[in-house]
Design goal:
The chain has about 500 residues and is an all-alpha fold. The protein folds into 2 domains: about 425 residues, MFS general substrate transporter like domains (Growth Hormone, Chain: A, Up-down Bundle); about 55 residues. The protein is built from 21 helices and 4 strands. Strand 3 and strand 4 form a beta hairpin. Helix 5 packs antiparallel against helix 11 and helix 9 runs antiparallel to helix 17.
């Protein structure tokens, strides 16, 4: 169905006097993306101490991460579709509001049940990036869209790199609730700036919301990601995990059939299975795996005790600072990736990004004992991630109608999330199998880390191959032509 202009009244400041505000659209949306990533990351340094602080078991505490992962995966495509139908700015405000409310609840309680529920609310913020990218496509001239989308996509890594040292500093020098007060304040600021500076996009695709499809996708993803995230703790062959995977297969198969028969599906599967969209989604999953291993493994390796022969025994704060150069690299390279996509096409940029990730893991395998080499290898992987993540939404924007950009990018972000969840489980499985006793406690060996790096690099190599298999654009990319070539509304209306 073709997209239609919105009939909503203009927001305050959307007229001639509001043009200075509209110039802030890109930085305001980027700030929202960074706040989202910071909010999702800050709890990680706190996890070892939460059992003592909340009186809960380590397994229960882990749900503060799992709950955010599950709700983020479920709500990202749902909110993306809602944004296409009811207004992207409106749904983006709701996502940021849920994140801010979740921070406020976490700041006010030490009850693990309320903390988990609040973290589940914060998972809604995962939809911030795809909704923002869709707004940028609708609101910016074509010559500015590429660089803005690249920056927006990079905010995930930038925020994660900033969130870890910030959280570590707060945990070390202040009450742990202060961490959530800080993220709540940032969320409130992001909400105010968004309401003030960003106008509602006029591009919508009205229709009836597919409630049955939303529930089916939610159930299938919960079964799948719960099995993946808890497999290491419950046992991969345990009845609970096997039942979850079987349930995911059955529910998602039924959901797929329901979507193909729906008049207004939550996800347009006929569009999503076209090679120009399906291959970027597959590559997103693989790149998500490669990206997440970088942060996950580095944080554990540098904190390992020196008695292991490779560990540096760094504090949580120092560990966060080791990851900070990677975030700075992502910020600096996002404009370059946009220019590269404009000159050579996003397909080439995506393949190059995956290849750079492989190079970064080669560095990590070669030397993971010297701090400067560890930081260098981490930054190289971050550079490759920037190139890949900035190219993925551009590929999606070129392949889908304007009225489906938020939902399509939501699915792409979902695939990244699934890749990260699978990476976490795979890395844990590798490290558990390669341990040695240090001071009477089992600690992963250097060989285990090297195998995990090799696994992540191999996945990134497959991502490079998948990127090269994406069909080429019919015409070379040129400045000012992106939106004209990338809007296939008329083509889809006739299919």
């Amino acid at each position: 169905m073709a997209s239609v202009p919105s009939s909503d009244p203009p927001i305050p400041g959307s007229g001639r006097r509001g043009r200075p505000r509209q110039r802030l659209t890109v930085p305001v949306l980027a700030f929202g993306g960074i706040v989202m990533a910071v909010t999702q990351t800050v709890v990680v340094p706190l996890l070892p101490d939460l059992p003592r602080l909340t009186g809960a078991s380590a397994g229960t505490v882990s749900w503060m991460v799992t709950a955010t992962l599950l709700t983020g995966a479920v709500l990202t495509p749902v909110l993306g579709r809602a944004g296409d139908m009811y207004g992207k700015r409106r749904v983006l405000l709701i996502a940021l509001a849920l994140m801010t409310v979740g921070s406020g609840i976490c700041a006010l309680t030490s009850d693990i049940r309320l903390l988990i529920a609040a973290r589940a609310l914060q998972g809604a913020s995962a939809a911030v990036v795809p909704l923002s990218i869709s707004i940028l496509r609708d609101e910016l001239p074509p010559e500015r869209t590429g660089s803005a989308v690249a920056l927006m996509s990079s905010t995930v890594g930038i925020g994660a790199a900033l969130g870890l040292p910030l959280a570590a500093l707060i945990v070390q020098y202040a009450d742990w609730h202060a961490m959530f007060w800080a993220t709540g304040a940032l969320g409130a600021l992001g909400l105010a700036l968004l309401w003030w500076a960003v106008r509602e996009s006029p591009v919508k695709q009205p229709g009836r919301f597919d409630i049955l499809g939303a529930f089916g996708l939610a159930a299938g993803l919960v079964f799948l990601l719960l099995g993946v995230s808890q497999g290491g703790q419950w046992g991969w062959t345990s009845p609970r995990v096997l039942a979850l995977f079987a349930g995911a297969a059955v529910v998602l198969a039924l959901w797929w059939r329901q979507q193909l028969g729906a008049a207004r599906p939550l996800v347009d599967l006929r569009l999503a299975t076209r090679p120009r969209i399906a291959l970027p989604h597959l590559t997103a999953l693989l790149v998500g795996f490669g990206f997440y291993a970088n942060t996950l493994l580095t944080a554990q390796l540098v904190q390992a005790p020196p008695a292991t022969g490779y560990g540096l025994g760094l504090s949580i704060v120092a560990t966060g600072l080791c990851l900070l150069p990677g975030g700075v690299t992502m910020l600096l390279f996002s404009p370059l990736s946009a220019r590269m996509s404009m000159a050579r096409g996003p397909r080439v940029t995506l393949a190059l990004g995956a290849a750079v990730i492989v190079l970064g893991y080669v560095v990590r395998i070669a030397d993971s004992r010297d701090l400067w080499v560890i930081v260098l290898g981490t930054a190289v992987v971050a550079t490759g991630t920037t190139l890949a993540y900035s190219a993925l939404p551009t590929l999606i924007l070129r392949a889908v109608p304007a009225g489906q950009t938020a939902s399509a990018n939501g699915v792409n972000v979902l695939m990244r999330t699934i890749g990260q969840a699978v990476c976490s489980a795979a890395v844990a499985a590798v490290l558990v199998r390669h341990t040695s006793l240090v001071g009477g406690a089992p600690v992963p060996t250097l060989h285990g880390y090297q195998l995990a790096f090799a696994m992540a690099g191999s996945v990134a190599l497959v991502a490079c191959a998948a990127a090269l298999a994406i069909p080429r654009d019919h015409a070379p990319a040129k400045a000012g032509e992106t939106r004209k070539r990338s809007d296939p509304d008329r083509e889809l209306e006739g299919t």
